[in-house]
Amino acid sequence: MGTHHHDHDHTHISAHHRAFGIGIALNIVFVAVEAWYGWKADSLALLADAGHNLSDVLGLVLAWLGMVIARVRPDERYTYGRQRASILAALLNALLLLAVVGGMAWEAVQRFSHPTAIAGETVIIVAAAGIVVNGVTAWLFMAGSHDDLNIRGAFLHMAGDALVSLGVVIGAFLYLQTDWLWLDPLLSLAIAVLILYATWDLLRQSLRLTFDGVPATIDLAAVREYLRTRPGVTAIHDLHIWAMSTSETALTAHLLIPAGHPGDNFLHDLGQELHDRFDIDHATVQIEAGDTDRKCRLETHIAH
Fold first, then answer.
1. pLDDT band with cut points at 50, 70 and 90 for residue 100
2. Has residue 38 got a pLDDT over 60?
3. 2-210 placed in CATH 1.20.1510.10
4. Hey, where are the domains in the chain?
5. pLDDT tens by residue, 261-278
6. Which residue in 20, 109, 175, 257 is deepest, having the highest Cβ count within 10 Å?
7. 235-243, strands of its sheet edge to edge
8. Does residue 280 contact residue 250 with C-beta atoms inside 8 Å?
9. What is the pLDDT of residue 241?
10. SS in 3 state form for the chain?
């Protein structure tokens, strides 16, 4: 038996497309403005941050591309479609974020050794604009970041950039008051640690989904117990749960029902319950009567 629920909210998908379009456009404009002001003010810090923001545009493009590819309809060659593209996009975004954090930390350490004066007023104005641009873009992705790992990657990129811009504003303001050159690299290091903390969970979860691990939102023990307590079920084996994409989950299981096949209504109700209780979109269940001594060749025993 297989069930496939097509009740995904198309309004949310359209909102995500709109968020990506607006976010990419805003950030491309901001990168151009920041690079121009960096060149005019002869500020290496602004030019470097423009390069950093350009990497975030790439991150948004990756996440959007992953979402678009994941929506391609299944065909004879890809019977599940290409939904894993969103998982790969989340993984690539996590790796890109780690690379950016590493670059930030390295630059901060270098500045501790070779402190440089900054054009405080110009930096504050441009970085404040960065807070607005990145904050608005992050807000566009906030709702979807809770239940879609790919959207969460885009959100973390933008939220991280807003934090960086906030740190730049604070550092430049304090620098104008004190002339302390070490403030800017210190704040950069602190922000890098915060982004690393948030990114680590994204990396861990995207790696888990890449290797067909059970999504963090699914309680495997609860699903197993639910299946065991269905009417007529005396045993369950070969239970597998994995992510087809960053927003859809699949399940396969063998149920032992000695009384015989319970009928299609049982299977349809089971699929609906798995969807409603555990947000499992694709359920494939095989019924066994237990009328043979031969074990199912797929039977596996997972310690739990």
1. confident
2. yes
3. yes
4. 2-210, 220-288
5. 899 999 999 999 999 999
6. 20
7. 2-4, 282-288, 249-256, 235-243
8. yes
9. 95
10. CEEECCCCCHHHHHHHHHHHHHHHHHHHHHHHHHHHHHHHCCCHHHHHHHHHHHHHHHHHHHHHHHHHHHCCCCCCCCCCCCCCHHHHHHHHHHHHHHHHHHHHHHHHHHHHHCCCCCCHHHHHHHHHHHHHHHHHHHHHHHHHHHCCHHHHHHHHHHHHHHHHHHHHHHHHHHHHHHCCCCHHHHHHHHHHHHHHHHHHHHHHHHHHHHCCCCCCCCCHHHHHHHHHCCCCCCEEEEEEEEECCCCCEEEEEEEECCCCCCCHHHHHHHHHHHHHHHCCCEEEEEEECCCCCCCCCCCCCCCC
């004190």: which residue's tokens?
Answer: 178
Q: Any idea which of 18-32, 156-170, 274-288 has the lowest mean pLDDT?
A: 156-170
Q: Point out the least confidently predicted range of 13-17, 114-118, 190-194.
A: 114-118
Query: Considering the chain, what is the average pLDDT of its residues?
Result: 82
How far, in Å, are 42, 165, 216 from residue 34 at the CA level?
A: 12, 12, 39
Q: What percent of the chain has pLDDT over 70?
A: 86
Rounded-to-integer distance, Cα 122 and Cα 33, Å: 12
What is the predicted pLDDT for the residue at 3?
Answer: 46
* Contact (Cβ atoms closer than 8 angstroms) between residue 114 and residue 226: no
In the CATH scheme, what is the code of domain 220-288? 3.30.70.1350
